[in-house]
Amino acid sequence: MSLNHYREAAKEKANIVGIATSVALTAALVNPLPLLAGLVLEAAYLTLVPDSPWYRARLARREKEEAEKRRQAFKAQVLPTLRAEMQQRYARLEAMRAQIATQTEPQQKWFSDMTPKLDYLLDKFLVFAGKEAMFLQYLRNVREEVCGTDANMRHAQENRGDRPARQAGGSQNAASKPIQLPTDPMARWGQQTVEMVHAAYDGEMEEINRELASEREESTRTVLQKRAEILSRRSEFLDKIGKMLLNLGHQLQLLEDTFGLINDQLRARTPEQIVADIDDVISQTDSMTRVLEELAPYEQMVSSAGRSISM
Fold first, then answer.
1. CB neighbour list of residue 202: distance below 8 Å, 6 or more residues apart
2. What does the pLDDT look like over 161-207, one tens digit per residue?
3. Rg of the chain on CA atoms, in Å
4. Rounded Cα gap, residues 92 and 263, in angstroms
5. Which of 18, 54, 119, 156 could form a disulfide with 200 if both were Cys (CB 3.0 to 4.6 A apart)?
6. Backbone angles phi, psi at 280, to 5 degrees
7. pLDDT tens-digit map of 2-15
8. What is the secondary structure of 5-42 as a DSSP string?
């Protein structure tokens, strides 16, 4: 967000000292002239300084420095929480970002417009990687809860083999093409875990349905129906997590591909083409950000579920 020139000019230390001095002199001399003179100078200051080119440039530098401080603080907070492979991917992006800077003329306007956008995409990589880490941790907790014992694990695997494969976000017919698992080992583990937990949930649902078919006691049937309802909701939530993990993986790869493309073709393409590519990716990134914002209530469920399972 751009700084307000007039507000920032009024907050300058020299300006505040000048006003305070005029007020102090007026009080000490019991004479309104210093205060009146100070007000005249203040009006002239606020008329001339805030809109002057040198002050605008000063504010731009200050805003850039503050933005960089916020970026570094965010990086220091998030990066250590990511898995080592994700930290390495981010380091490669930073290296490409630095290499891009060495291939351009910093004084060119298009470059000064491009660099904040690249930094924005770097920040979004950390955001998406952080969300991925949170969802993966949730899957670890649920897997331990549902399939923690060897018996439960075998039961889940048997159930998974007895029914058509299902993909994160919905079911899949056995006659259709097999699930395309991500190439990233950890993301692949996440999708396989979704499958395994789904199989365990399906097995529990089958057992509940068998009990419901033979149970005549109304109070017991009520409890069983409630269990079935909760398992169904957990299964739907698991689908959302699996789908989001897939989307996050694709989005992270898109960011990496974009940096690679810019770095590869910086000399061969016009600035307008490069900026257009970046703007397209920013638009897609913003769309993903909005999806994550819509999932904020689910994220709270993930956090609370993780705490309750680990207690």
1. 159, 163, 235
2. 444 445 444 444 434 444 455 667 888 888 889 888 988 899 999 99
3. 29
4. 12
5. 156
6. -60, -45
7. 455 656 555 666 65
8. HHHHHHT-HHHHHHHHHHHHHHHHHT-SHHHHHHHHHH
Q: Which residue has the tokens 């493309």?
A: 261
Report domain extents, the chain.
Answer: 1-81, 132-310
**What does DSSP say about strands 170-171 and 166-167: parallel, antiparallel, or unpaired?**
antiparallel
Q: What is the pLDDT of residues 111-159, one digit of tens each?
A: 777 888 899 999 999 999 999 998 898 888 888 888 764 444 455 455 4
Tell me the C-alpha distance between 131 and 303, whole Å.
11
Distance, in Å, from the CA atom of 75 to the CA atom of 90, rounded to the nearest integer, reads 10
Q: In terms of Cα–Cα distance, which of 100, 151, 102, 144 is closest to 122?
A: 100
Tokens of 310: 């680990």
DSSP string, 50-94: TTSHHHHHHHHHHHHHHHHHHHHHHHHHHGGGS-HHHHHHHHHHH
Using left for φ > 0, alpha for ψ between -120 and 50, and beta otherwise, residue 220 falls in alpha
Which single residue is written with the structure tokens 């907070």?
A: 77
